[in-house]
Amino acid sequence: MIAALMQRLASWETFLAVMALGLLAYAVVAVPNFTSAFNLSQAAAGVSEKALLALPLVLLIIAREIDLSIASILALTSVVLGILVQAGTPLLVAIPLVLLAGVAAGAFNGLLVTRLDLPSLVVTLGTLAMFRGVGYILLGSGSVNQFPDALTNLGIDDVPGTQVPWTVVPFLVLAPLFAIVLQHTPTGRRIYALGGNPDAALYAGVRGRRLRFMLFVVSGLVCALAGIVFTARLANSRANNALGFELDVITIALLGGVSVFGGRGKLTGVLWALVLVATLRNVLGLLQVGGDAQGIAIGLLLIGSLLLSNTAERLFDRVRTRRLLDAGLTLDQPSTSGITRP
């Protein structure tokens, strides 16, 4: 029981939780205005799109794939929404069309990866530039800033009776669904099997091509939803929206314990990583630290936490090995009756 408790305490999710709660405790005590309702609401709203983008990316990385074009799909769908609204299209028509545009972008990635057997890293590196380039072709370097009140109110209002911004609600709805699918359904087990050992998964009957294609489609759909949220929050549609978001989202996924080699990871760790990164950025912002310095801090956090975790894991393994060796030596010692214990 003690060994199981130690292993639990040494888990990556526990380590992240301790770091996140420690940073929150420091911010509450030492950072002015951190606990104000306005600041907490703005901090949650500011991470809404990255939280959404992290959900499908986690599934893709566990399946031994990656999508570097997530922020570009967000920007492209934001441009599509702006153009449709500018043309007088009602929101009830424009939003489904935007979601379909995201599905089409994700399907394009998926087809290149699954049908042409191209590496997803290379494919999505190319579409990262391509999708954003299409946005520039459609809208140029300008922007759309006039949107219906129904959309802009979604971006600035809170859920009635709370300080929870509406922009966080899509993530709060989707995160449990993604967690249930990943941890408690046959689809989730297939995703882990595909990422852990693709050959074994194939012989076990997992339709790898179909599953990977659907993951890219889901990624495109969620990116389009994030594009709608981003446009509503900033009341702005332009081709350079969410520039560089993919780096933060990948950092959150890897910091959350998702293995870059596939087959391992949980959304629990990713959620703690999201809280940690969002809190760190908010604290640095309140302390008047610029965006470039914040990026450096996030990078150092990822590298430092990984090094610390690996060191702790090695120490734990050494302690456990030493205890097993000591127990073996004890069992091998003869008793006073001359009978050796089995």
- Structural class by secondary-structure content: mainly alpha
Determine the mean pLDDT.
87
Distance between the termini: 22 Å
How much strand?
A: under 5%
DSSP summary, beta strand count: 0
Main beta sheet, described?
Answer: none
Helix content: over 70%
**H/E element order:** HHHHHHHHHHHHHHH
Count of DSSP H/I helices: 15
Write down the Rg: 23 Å
Q: Based on CA inertia axes, which overall geometry fits?
A: globular
| Low-pLDDT sequence parts | 1-6, 334-342
Describe the overall structure.
This protein is an all-alpha fold and 342 residues long. It has a domain at 48-243. The chain contains 15 helices and no strands. The protein has helices at residues 2-9, 12-30, 37-46, 48-62, 70-86, 91-114, 120-139, 149-156, 169-184, 186-196, 198-203, 208-234, 245-255, 267-286, 291-332. The model is unreliable at 1-6 and 334-342 (pLDDT under 50).
Short description:
It is built from 15 helices and no strands. It is mainly α and 342 residues long. Helix 2 (12-30) runs parallel beside helix 14 and helix 13 runs parallel beside helix 15 (291-332).
